[in-house]
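Protocol step 4 of 6: record predicted structures for both targets in the notebook before any analysis. Target 1:
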Amino acid sequence: MRKAVLYLVIGILFSPPLLSAQNLIWFKGNTHCHTTNSDGDETPQNVVKWYKNHGYHFLVITDHNVLTDIKPLDTDKTDDFLLIPGEEISDHCDGAPIHLNALNITDPIEPQHGNSKVETLQNNIDAIIRAGGIATINHPNWRWAFTDTEMSQLKHIRLFELYNFSYNCNNFGAGGNPGMEEVWDRMLSRGILMYGIATDDAHDYRDEFSAKKSNPGTGWIMVRASELTPRAILTALEKGEFYSTIGVLLKNIVVTDKGYTVVIREEDDMKYTTQFIGKNGRILKEAFGTTAVYTYQGGELYVRARIFASSGEFACTQPVFVNKDDSKG
């Protein structure tokens, strides 16, 4: 009962008039972090405590090739915090790291290996699906492991890390190498539907918080779901009912057959610019203020939005193909 009341209050406080009749709620979560069960510097108990104390609604602990037992960590059955089991399958090929997260599995999955990067990725994706989990591709630009060329050949995968704020994940393009948004746009421009996740990939919870550490709280997702359960959260992820952020919060995202609307939750005296992006990463429109609307013109192929705040924070929403027949996979 307490959960239902809390969710109703959240909906009243943060739901704008455009909210759909389904009364969906935004939940803050992270799908990638580590504990002392692999290479993190905090115990699972303290990692859970950190996220609970910082306003998260759900968390997936993804230790390297270890399925951390979440049962002893979920000590309060009446709270409003959800733990989802997970594992980071840490594989390699041709000297490059091939890492994927397996969300909501019940048994650990061994790295599957392969004779190429594509085969290694696909073998692990297939193993995750056989285990009843959902796969996400992790930090493609870490050590420049693989690009849209490899990811565009994969099947039965919708989720990848658009922004991983662990140290040295090369989220932004430089030196002739594409950043992760460019990688995303290249796939989308081929008609391949992928949804981009932001994570902190936290390892360093103690001592120094800095750009050269993998600290918690640096990137997360806001998932729109009917309730805080594993099934509802994971179903929403697979449908792209979420956005990725490093601070900008949204009240609503409304997609119709005529256009794409973003409503921003204003903070203090910040100013906002929303860019609507289409085929080949082309900026279709820029809009200022807390409500941004794009009306389809034809020829966009897909539309997604990037929202900047004057604080330096930003968020990315998920793409929608204007013509459903244009998307593959």
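Target 2:
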Amino acid sequence: MEPLNVTTYIYLVFTYSVGLVFAIGVILRIYQYATTPQPIKIMLTPAPLTKSGAFARVLGEVFFFKSLFKSNKPTWVFGYLFHISFFLLIAMHFARHFVYTNPLPSWYNYFVIAGIVCGIIMVLSLFLLLMRRVVVERVKFISLFQDYLILILLMLIGIAGLSLNFVLTPSALTVVDKQLDPYMNGLLTFQFTNIPSNPLFLMHYTLVMLLILYIPFSKVMHFVGIFFSPTRNMADNPIEERYYRPNAKDLSI
């Protein structure tokens, strides 16, 4: 087995540290969401009258961004395109680990083309969302540094990923692909191999790790927080069922 180089040792420590911070951070944020006192009903009306209806409402927000569609359709288009392309790319990255075999399947080129298309859509939609924050005065007024940071970070990840296909030669990309699978398997089995040393790949990988590290401390946690949002997950039944949370102090007037 080839001895590990210094770059691999650095990225092994970096990767496991990021994974640990991410796991602990997400668990703590979920605990914070679940234990935050909510003494009164504050559902956004018109709201469903049953708990099952409220749950369906949350799913509507998760999968279709229904409230955003009603309030701002151009933003809904850009946001929806980003989320769909982003999650397709995540799924395709995982799927690639199982379909990249020797010899490659006959349809693998279409798989790669679909990934490139999703990457382009992701970068363009992020750029339009960034321009919205820069150009639209009322959105610019309420935008914080972290709002710009996450959009730029995601754009850089997409650009770095696309550069692997547009900048590298087919032979160089094949070398990266062949080194990547053993490295990722080693992370799971602790039988480590060297990480691909191509600078563009290392840039892409580093940016992804920084995103994962930042997620528990950012607004990206809305992918979990939406399920704990009282304005969405509460049924409009204060008369039929008295609302009471044991961890919230009783209010007195």
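Step 5 preliminary note on target 2. The two ends are 73 Å apart (CA to CA). Residues 6-35 form the longest helix (30 residues).
Proceed to step 6 after PI sign-off.
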